[in-house]
């Protein structure tokens, strides 16, 4: 029986961009054991070309930062500037907070420091790939939402603030949607890591805090004095769409 081309089910496609050949081979082998369709390239320009030429696109990019020809930062920025919202997992031996923040600012979804445990890499891969299909965490009837001077369409990923279009990553949109669906409630960092990033075993990380900073930059009139994405000391965060008129 011939199956129509548009009904053929493909395994998730993963592109590993890593110039250390032994590491690329190891990651490829272990991901293929998990059932993924894995391609590898060893430099930045080849990554861009491979992504552009891949029919149907990749479901995940595992991206090293120190690459020949074009850094991982530049690859990530190029993809996001072109509108490509494929999940990106950055790999790097750099441990400075500034490096992670730069990666998140350019649109990376997660940042994993070398050396890493194989189990952690596989867990993150599963959760990033599952992100697009875990609709059970989201309300089906939430399409467009407005607050302050922002208009957000969760179906089309279109966002405007003050009439100006903004480009959010898939993870930023999912985090925003989780806040909207839980408006007024205090949500902990652990809850966000579990329900937005899919991390059941939560490492010590400032990932959530960095993403909150990004949302404030997009949506707050004064990010240093937020009125919508509020910090609750010792507990987590709370989102409110309507500003308290008594707030000074």
Describe the structure.
With 248 residues, the chain is an alpha/beta fold. The chain has 2 domains: 11-133, Response regulator (Rossmann fold, 3-Layer(aba) Sandwich); 137-239, Arc Repressor Mutant, subunit A (Orthogonal Bundle), CATH 1.10.10. Helices cover 35% and strands 20% of the residues. It contains 8 helices and 12 strands. The chain has helices at residues 21-33, 44-53, 72-81, 97-105, 118-130, 170-181, 189-195, 207-219; strands at residues 13-17, 37-41, 60-64, 88-92, 110-113, 144-147, 150-153, 158-161, 164-166, 186-187, 229-232, 236-239. The strands form 3 sheets. Strands 2-1-3-4-5 form a 5-stranded parallel sheet, with helices on both faces. It has a 4-stranded antiparallel sheet with strand order 6-7-8-9, with no helix packed on it. Helix 4 (97-105) links the parallel strand 4 and strand 5. Helix 2 runs parallel beside helix 3 (72-81). The longest helix has 13 residues, at 21-33. The protein is globular. The termini are far apart. The relative contact order is 0.10. Residues 1-8 and 132-140 have low confidence and may be disordered.
Can you summarize this structure?
This protein has 248 residues and is α/β, with parallel strands linked by helices. The protein has eight helices and twelve strands.
């Amino acid at each position: 029986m011939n199956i129509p081309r548009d009904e053929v089910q493909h395994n998730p496609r993963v592109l590993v961009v890593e110039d250390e050949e032994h590491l690329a081979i190891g990651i490829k082998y272990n991901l293929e054991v998990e059932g993924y369709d894995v391609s590898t390239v060893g430099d930045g320009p080849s990554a861009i070309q491979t992504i552009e030429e891949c029919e149907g696109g990749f479901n995940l990019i595992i991206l090293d930062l120190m690459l020949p020809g074009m850094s991982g930062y530049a690859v990530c920025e190029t993809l996001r500037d072109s509108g490509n919202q494929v999940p990106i997992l950055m790999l790097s031996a750099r441990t400075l907070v500034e490096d992670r923040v730069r990666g998140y600012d350019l649109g990376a979804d997660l940042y994993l420091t070398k050396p890493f445990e194989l189990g952690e890499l596989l867990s993150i891969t599963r959760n990033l790939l599952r992100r697009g299909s875990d609709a059970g965490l989201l309300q089906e009837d939430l399409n467009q939402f407005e607050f302050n001077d922002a208009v957000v369409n969760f179906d089309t990923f279109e966002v405007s603030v003050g009439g100006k279009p903004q480009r959010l990553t898939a993870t930023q949109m999912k985090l925003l949607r989780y806040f909207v669906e839980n408006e007024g409630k205090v949500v902990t960092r652990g809850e966000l890591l579990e329900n937005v990033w899919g991390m059941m075993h939560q490492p010590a990380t400032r990932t959530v805090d960095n993403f909150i900073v990004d949302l404030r930059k997009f949506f707050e009139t004064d990010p240093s004095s937020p009125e919508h994405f509020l910090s609750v000391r010792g507990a987590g965060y709370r989102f409110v769409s309507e500003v308290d008129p008594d707030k000074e």
